[in-house]
From TrEMBL:
Recorded topology in the membrane: Multi-pass membrane protein
Family in the record: Belongs to the ABC-4 integral membrane protein family.
Subcellular location, record wording: Cell membrane
Predominant cellular place of this UniProt entry's protein: membrane
Domain ABC3 transporter permease C-terminal, chain residue ranges per copy: 191-299, 615-733
Ranges in coiled-coil conformation: none
Lineage: Bacteria, Bacillati, Actinomycetota, Actinomycetes, Pseudonocardiales
TM segment ranges: 21-44, 182-209, 230-256, 276-301, 322-340, 346-376, 397-419, 611-630, 665-688, 700-721
Originating species: Amycolatopsis sacchari
GO MF term set: transmembrane transporter activity
InterPro entries per UniProt: ABC3_permease_C, Macrolide_Exporter_MacB
Keywords, in A-Z order: Cell membrane, Membrane, Transmembrane, Transmembrane helix
Protein name as catalogued: FtsX-like permease family protein
GO cellular component: plasma membrane
Length: 737
């Protein structure tokens, strides 16, 4: 008896087996495609980093080949990576990054295509004038982190380079690139929370013909087939679907990778080549999926192999024990140890998460059994009694329809715990007002820079003017120190996020009485008393994120105090912020403002929301499909029972209500539990992200109830397929079974 030939013969003659095999193959294909996509994400982030690593100068590579300095700029909220370079040797001897056409000579500029387009969209004073020289070429995608990235490489003569330029041996090597840790963590979480529902879909598909296949195998066993032959038959039947599904998943993975290129992350999209996996890993992952399915199928043969008569005649399932409830606290303990231990790794966290997700498979059937017992004891209507008896007699089979929904609810609750918590972490952004542009410099360079900036602003017709703000240290009589800004009151009100009531004369503004403090230019100096006659005045911060401790009027600072830190700031009210930024960037510096800081945060939050929505939609679709297939499989498994009930006069409507109750009752209990567990898991994962940020806690909102309600609705909606299945049972002769 050839198991493979027998499996194909069964597929030819049995339509239900064909349907089950096709659905199982689709489930394996989905799982394989998702695994290949998610496993490729760390490699994709590394490919990005390798392309763009040259944009981050490695100042440890001392050499005399070139001078380089880097800065960040922004145009309408989009970050520009700017590198100023100068060759101190033969430019042709400098190894260029892939995608850079040439080393820019003095007065030459290389830009990315996206930046080139933006330079032609805006007036020259708003952007193009920031890059002295003429554009002589563009960088290709091989030199960019993502196709939409804004990059400019500005060539100079060595004597014209900014003062903070470094001598280096060349551009940074791709070997120092690193993967994105956040996306790697999300990829691992995605493997756990999306592949498990995919495997539930596979298991639900396999159950479409479980009862018929069990009777067929039992008959073969009674006819003399050995346990090995029976196992071979099941392996052949399942292997056909599993191998075909894995190969189909491998075939569709390039399509999934192409679709993934349109999902932005970190400010831009991807190249299709980013999602490449090593061939060995691809082969291992593709081979692992059929192996998992085959192991699960063979493991379910114990009853047919050991007791074929019982398989044919039916049996009473063993009652479930309450010890199953211990699986959840044990898994939760491992997970929270992983997220709180100083020595744990990402792999340990993902293992703990996998245990939590897996514990639902152990605990869910017991909850289903408990709900069934309550209904059998308390309910008296026919549909409720039928549903309760089903839950009591076969809790594992009844829970199977809700397993995917439960996992989707757990994922949704976890996401709706994390996202509001991330939102709460956003904000801050420094001490300067939203409209102020500023950069750090030394007090010695601040004065000449302000003169040049104001000259540029006046030439471009802007009303804004630059202001110099120093920083000093105030020391109390007991030795405590605070950092304070030195600025005129009117300048501080225009530039800093504080509220002052300006008073004449030397004054120090703060929350406390500060006139007895000593002032120094740095943290190490003992300081000298403030100017005689200095008064104290109140200062109020505009929000909790402001870190301004005091503002000192310049007249209150003794002449001998030399600040070691200065900041050049420009208020942009009444002026074009882009033109003002151009005037500042001409100094070869990174210009900061609070809006840009918040824009970076919003980009990160948007990435997380986008990934979460995609994951939740995928999980919900998989859960709905597995619930619908499991419900249809439940009807097929009990054709004899339903046929007999219909022959006895039970209506299709009563049986449909019973089947919907079978889906809704365990789903209600399990989804509530999954919502609580998902919330706790989200709190645990948030603890990893907020590490080092005191006073930040997870945020719980009423939206946490949404996954429970939607999960219950999905379970009931998926169970509606029972009515067509019951009508088909009624239309077929009962003798067929």
């Amino acid at each position: 008896m050839n198991p493979v030939r027998l499996a194909f013969r069964v597929l030819r003659v049995d339509g239900r087996t064909r349907a089950s095999t096709i659905l199982m193959a689709v489930g394996v294909a989905v799982a394989t495609g998702l695994v290949l996509l998610l496993a490729s994400l760390p490699y994709a982030t590394k490919a990005r980093a390798e392309r763009a690593i040259w944009q981050q100068p490695y100042y440890g590579s001392q050499g005399e080949s070139m001078l380089i300095t880097s800065a960040e700029d922004f145009s309408r909220g989009t970050m520009i990576t700017r590198l100023d370079v100068a060759s101190t040797s033969d430019p042709s001897a400098i190894a260029l990054p892939q995608g850079m056409p040439k080393f820019p000579a003095p007065g030459e500029v290389l830009v990315s295509p996206a930046l080139f387009e933006r330079m032609h969209e805006l007036p020259a004073p708003a952007l193009a004038d920031r890059f002295p020289g003429r554009v002589v070429g563009t960088l290709s995608d091989e030199a960019l982190q993502y196709p939409e990235q804004f990059v400019a490489v500005v060539g100079h003569a060595p004597g014209e380079m900014p003062g903070d330029a470094y001598h280096v041996a060349g551009f940074s090597s791709p070997s120092s690139a690193r993967v994105d840790p956040l996306l790697s963590l999300l990829a691992g979480v995605g493997v756990v929370v999306l592949v498990v529902p995919s495997l539930v879909l596979v298991a639900s598909s396999a159950r479409l013909t479980a009862a018929r296949r069990e009777r067929r195998l039992a008959a073969l066993r009674l006819a003399g087939a050995t346990p090995g032959q029976v196992t071979g038959i099941v392996a052949a039947e399942t292997g056909v679907a599993a191998v075909a599904g894995a190969l189909l998943g491998l075939a569709i993975s390039p399509v999934l990778h192409q679709l993934a290129t349109y999902v932005p992350w970190g400010g831009g999209t991807w190249l299709a080549s980013d999602f490449g996996l090593p061939p060995v890993m691809t082969a291992l992952l593709v081979a692992a999926m059929p192996v998992l399915v085959l192991v699960a199928a063979v493991a379910g043969l114990r009853r047919v192999v050991s007791n074929p008569v019982g398989a044919v005649a039916g049996h009473t399932p063993k009652p479930l024990r309450a010890w199953r409830l211990l699986a959840l606290p044990v898994a939760g303990g491992v997970f929270f140890f992983a997220v709180t231990s100083k020595s744990s790794s990402v792999a340990m966290v993902l293992f703990g998460l996998l245990l939590v997700v897996g514990s639902a498979v152990v605990v869910g059937p017991w909850l289903t059994f408990a709900v069934g017992r309550v209904f059998v004891q308390r309910w008296r209507k026919p549909a409720g009694l039928l549903a309760g008896r089903r839950l009591l007699d076969d809790p594992r089979g009844a829970y199977r329809a809700s397993a995917g929904v439960v996992l989707a609810v757990l994922i949704g609750s976890m996401a709706l715990t994390l996202l509001p918590s991330f939102d709460r972490m956003s904000g801050g952004g420094g001490d300067f007002r939203d409209s102020a542009l500023s950069y750090s410099t030394s007090p010695k360079e601040a004065g000449p820079a302000i003169a040049r900036i104001n000259e540029r602003l006046a030439a471009s017709g802007q009303q804004a003017r630059a202001t110099e703000i120093h920083s000093v240290v105030l020391t109390s009589v007991n030795g405590s120190k605070v950092q304070a800004y030195v600025a005129k009151c009117e300048d501080a009100v225009r530039l800093l996020r504080v509220q002052l009531s300006c008073v004449p004369g030397p004054v120090v503004y703060g929350d406390d009485e500060l006139t007895g403090y000593r002032v120094s230019g740095d943290w190490d100096s003992p300081g000298v008393p403030l100017v005689a006659g200095t008064r104290s005045a109140p200062m109020f911060s505009l929000d909790a994120a402001v870190n301004v401790s005091a503002v000192v009027d310049p007249a209150a600072v003794p002449p001998g105090v030399v600040p070691s830190y200065a900041r050049v700031a420009v208020p942009t009210e009444g002026s074009d912020p882009e033109v003002v930024r151009t005037a500042l960037v001409a100094e070869g510096v990174s210009v900061y403002n609070r809006d840009i800081y918040l824009a970076e945060q919003q980009t990160q939050l948007a990435d997380l929301r986008r990934v979460t929505v995609i994951g939740l939609v995928a999980a919900a679709v998989l859960a709905g499909c597995s619930a619908a297939i499991a419900t249809a499989g439940s009807v097929m498994d009990r054709r004899r029972t339903f046929g007999a009930l219909m022959a006895a006069g039970t209506g299709v409507g009563t049986l449909s209500r019973a089947l919907r109750a079978e889906a809704a009752l365990p789903a209600l209990a399990a989804t509530i539990g999954a919502g609580v567990v998902g919330m706790l898991v989200g709190i645990g994962l948030f603890g990893l992200v907020r590490e080092g940020r005191e006073g930040v806690s997870a945020v719980l909102t009423p939206w946490l109830l949404a996954p429970v309600v939607l999960g219950l609705g999905v379970a009931v909606l998926a169970a509606s397929v029972c009515t067509p299945a019951l009508k088909r049972v009624r239309a077929e002769p009962l003798a067929d079974e």
